[in-house]
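This week, think about what follows.
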Amino acid sequence: MSEAFRDNAQQSRFELTVDGAIAFVAYRKTPDTITLVHTEVPPELGGRGIGSKLARATLDAVRAQRIKLIVKCEFIQGFMKKHPEYNDLLT
């Protein structure tokens, strides 16, 4: 399985490309915060843990940017409940 993660700032989303398909987390950004609004994983990538890999990579990228996080996306909210080590990112 080949995969690559990137911040596609032009489309305001973090992307994880896996075997040619793109899963993403859409966001809105201000100078001080980033709001994660929606996660989408293509059906052909379902059941492979891609959503969790994408969530972890996204939250690590937010941490690296040193900005505060607002989460409107239910998938990311659920991930953070299982992984409280990311709660310090929240506003």
